[in-house]
Amino acid sequence: MVVRDDHEREYVEYLRARMPGLRRLAYLLTGDFDRADDVVQTTATSLYVKWRQVRAAGNIDAYVRKMVVHTFLSEQRRSWARTWLTDRLPDRAAAEPPTDDALVVRDALRRLAPRQQAVLVLRFLCDLPVDETAAALGCAAGTVKSQTADGLAALRRILGPSAAATFGGGTR
Prior knowledge:
By secondary structure, this protein is an all-alpha fold. The protein folds into 2 domains: 1-82, Rna Polymerase Sigma Factor, Chain: A, CATH 1.10.1740; 99-172, Winged helix-like DNA-binding domain superfamily/Winged helix DNA-binding domain (Arc Repressor Mutant, subunit A, Orthogonal Bundle). The chain contains 8 helices and no strands. The longest helix is centred in the first third of the chain and has 25 residues, at 6-30. The radius of gyration is 18 Å and the shape is globular. It starts with 5 loop residues before the first helix and ends in a 6-residue tail after the last helix. Keywords: DNA-binding, Sigma factor, Transcription, Transcription regulation. One of its GO terms (biological process) is DNA-templated transcription initiation.
């Protein structure tokens, strides 16, 4: 790759260093490695176009995290995002339900509304506080709190009574 100037070099260095974290965030949001790569690629392209302004603005990591979340939410609104290719015919029952709790929780997360899913991923899987989650989503802290409560309640409904122990009382 031929780097034209210092700004471009800084962009490449920044993206190389942050790529694993961006892919992890995108995967946690999408639940699919290929879609996660698409989200990160779209974000990287947008970041390249805006690099000089983003770099001058200050907290680059927070801005890029917000870009990833917004790209995910934007793609969720498209009809193709609701199409899932499977290796089973619809009339066949699954052989056995997954036993790994992480797989069960990931599947339940995919059934939530996209903003609730994004809030729970940012809050609990990326361990962001309420104010940083609000900044990433471009909303008020109160919205994050209500989306967290609603998302956890929906997870409890989806996962059933056994989830009460895992997702018991309140939010942090």
